[in-house]
Amino acid sequence: MTSARPTLEGVAARAGVSRATVSRVVNGSAHVSPEIRETVLRAVEELGYVPNLAARSLVTRRAGSVALVFSEPPTRVFSDDPLFASVIRGVSQEMEAADRQLVLMLAGTPRGRERVERYATARHVDGVIVASMHGADPLPAVLARRGVPVVCGGRPFSYGGPPCVDMANAGGAEQAVRHLVAGGRRRIATIAGPQDMVAGIDRLTGYRTALRDSDRRSIVAVGDFTRESGAAAMRQLLRDDPALDAVFAASDMMALGALRVLRQAGRRVPDDVAVVGFDDVPAAAYAEPPLTTVRQPAGQMGRELGRLVLELASGGDVGGPVILPTELVVRESA
């Protein structure tokens, strides 16, 4: 004869607390002391108690999951750019700590956005993180109006929208270009990021700010943060200004593409042309030569996004935007 399945009451009796206290611990409530929480969790483990998730959802009106939405096509999210994986890893760590499931969704097309909207407003998730937005992406505002807790990875185009986590993009770019100016570089070009993304706009702003008070002029080509676009932009820059002696690329992937083109053109780095990137992806340290870059904490961004969306979903007030610092990492390319 099989033994009866452990119950909430059994856990309460083993831990010496009320059934309500066990329920609060199992449902992740913060209103329980660490000592009581540890006692209850030990009783849960000893008895092998497994919460009834369906019943919990009916009582708490929570789905127990959060959606991470990238406003990008699959080819971009699952490319060789490791930043997406870093953000996913950071969000996942927060969800695991909170005993929530992470649902990954893509909204790179109008149809994809409609699918996310239907899924989220049907309360299949407790909150939504929208990242890698282009232009005036309508999804965050639509979800917020429908009462779905939503946070943005990167500052939205319009202020006053959902809370967000962003990087000090303009400041990081400005620091990178000032480093090139201080090194005596005269003709400093940039491979800017896409101008329908706030990160691309802010990094171009930082580049121009650093040059504003010098006698150096702006030399701009635009890419889309990919290696291929960086290579194409570098070829364009060499045609437009063969005498350029430095390049600031608004992403490491574009900088890696630029390094390849410079090598093919017989330009030595950094002797003839200095190169600085942005991101500090793992490949930057192993580039030839190792890439000077601006480090941004993508994993921390993921963790902060996870923290904020869980706070919103529990009815908390998260306040204004969270801006994470960037840091110049000097290597041999500049």
Structural description of this entry:
With 334 residues, the chain is of the alpha/beta class. It folds into 3 domains: 8-53, Orthogonal Bundle (434 Repressor (Amino-terminal Domain)); 65-167 and 299-324, Response regulator (Rossmann fold); 169-297, Response regulator (Rossmann fold). It is 44% helix and 16% strand. It has helices spanning 8-15, 19-26, 34-47, 53-60, 74-77, 83-97, 110-121, 139-145, 169-182, 198-212, 227-240, 252-264, 298-313; strands at residues 65-70, 101-106, 127-131, 150-153, 164-167, 188-192, 219-222, 246-249, 274-279, 292-295, 322-324, 327-329. Strands 2-1-3-4-5-11 form a 6-stranded parallel beta sheet, sandwiched between helices. A 6-stranded mixed beta sheet has the order 7-6-8-9-10-12, sandwiched between helices. Strand 3 (127-131), helix 8 (139-145) and strand 4 (150-153) form a beta-alpha-beta unit. The chain starts with 7 loop residues before the first helix and ends in a 5-residue tail after the last strand. The mean pLDDT is 90.
SSE topology:
Layout: H1 8-15, H2 19-26, H3 34-47, H4 53-60, E1 65-70, H5 74-77, H6 83-97, E2 101-106, H7 110-121, E3 127-131, H8 139-145, E4 150-153, E5 164-167, H9 169-182, E6 188-192, H10 198-212, E7 219-222, H11 227-240, E8 246-249, H12 252-264, E9 274-279, E10 292-295, H13 298-313, E11 322-324, E12 327-329
Parallel strand pairs: 1-2, 1-3, 3-4, 4-5, 5-11, 6-7, 6-8, 8-9, 9-10
Antiparallel strand pairs: 10-12
